[in-house]
Specification:
Elements lengths: L5 E5 L3 E6 L3 E6 L4 E2 L2 E2 L7 H15 L5 E2 L1 E4 L5 E5 L2 E2 L2 E8 L2 H10 L1 E2 L2 E2 L9 E7 L2 E2 L11 H8 L1 H23 L3 E12 L5 E4 L8 E5 L15 H9 L13 H19 L3 H6 L7
Parallel strand pairs: 6-16
Antiparallel strand pairs: 1-2, 2-3, 3-8, 4-5, 7-8, 9-15, 10-13, 10-14, 10-15, 11-12, 15-16, 15-17
This protein binds ligand Q0N.
């Protein structure tokens, strides 16, 4: 890092630094989490794949919403971005009923105040994508909230704008992904507001860490779906009888190699760009 960069925050797998002139540096590590635990073994280049994918989507969704990206650094894992006032909600869009959405639907027939058709099966495609906001839990798990609760947190007009933009981003990206054999089951956006009061897409976007990617060729409703990127890791963790509490198991070399290959495959399929070309010049995803 060339400029004075003060560390301002840590996620499970990303770090955030302050840069001069109201900028931030978002650095994606190679750490991987599963069942909410960060494993002791890293997946080489995972952070570069996620940074490259985010850059790719930022460059292609500017017609929908402005974003925080200022520059990709040559290391391929660091994004210089505009510092924003972040909204206090997670902007989740679901096209398929899975995860906490499936749990809520199973218990109540509703997700975040959306009443859904009766008799839906786990992982089934929804009639239309739905916006299902969540609170930003300081400690661990985000909690689903209704659209009215989200509107109280950000204001009604801002809420309407956020919902419209999040749904539009999801429709754009899911159509792109589906044409390339990847189902974008759901995704979480982080949005902020700039000094002019304009809504801006931030954080990472439309990556396998912020979304559920499913391989389209094995999709079948009525059960949980294998994850495009983490399935080898999950299968290995199950096979050793890990109880899903800290610390997680070390991953063997084959599992690391298979998993890295899935991230690189997702990058290639979604961007149409070879990952080696990205490593040579990260800006290829922006053109
Ligand atoms: C911000 N987070 C949540 C890294 C990821 N452009 C921005 N301006 C102001 N704040 C943020 C951004 C961005 N992106 C986003 N926290 C602050 C995710 N973080 C958690 C820590 O690790």
């Amino acid at each position: 890092m060339s400029e004075a960069a003060v560390h301002v925050g840590s996620g499970k797998v990303r770090e955030l630094y302050e840069l001069p002139d109201d900028r931030l540096l978002l650095v994606a590590s190679d750490r991987i989490s599963t069942f909410d635990v960060v494993l002791p073994t890293e997946i080489p280049d995972k952070g570069r794949v996620l940074t490259g994918l985010s850059g790719f989507w930022f460059a292609r969704t500017k017609h929908i919403v402005a974003n925080h990206l200022l520059a990709l650094r040559d290391d391929g894992r660091s994004t210089e971005c505009r510092r924003l006032e972040m909204l206090p909600i997670e902007c989740v869009v679901r096209g398929y009923i899975t995860g906490s959405g499936w749990k809520d639907y199973h218990a109540t027939g509703e997700v975040c105040g959306h009443r859904l058709p009766e008799g839906m099966r786990e992982s089934e495609r929804l009639p239309d994508p739905i916006f299902t906001p969540a609170t930003k839990a300081q400690s661990g798990h985000d909690e689903n909230i209704t659209r009215d609760e989200a509107a109280e947190l950000v204001g009604r007009d801002r809420f309407d704008e956020v919902e419209r933009i999040a749904l539009e981003l999801y429709r754009f990206a899911s159509a792109h992904a589906e044409a390339r054999g990847i189902i974008l089951a759901d995704t979480k956006f982080e949005l902020g507001v700039d000094g002019d009061g304009a809504l801006v897409l931030a954080d990472e976007a439309l990556t396998p860490d912020s979304s559920r990617f499913w391989p389209a060729d094995s999709y079948a409703p009525g059960r949980s779906q294998p994850s495009f990127d983490k399935q080898f890791v999950r299968d290995y963790c199950e096979s050793v009888g890990w109880d899903k509490t800290y610390p997680g198991p070390e991953l063997p070399d084959e599992v690391v190699a298979e998993t890295r290959a899935k991230y690189v495959e997702a990058f290639g399929r979604l961007t149409g760009i070879s990952f080696d070309d990205y490593l040579g010049d990260p800006d290829v995803v922006l053109r």
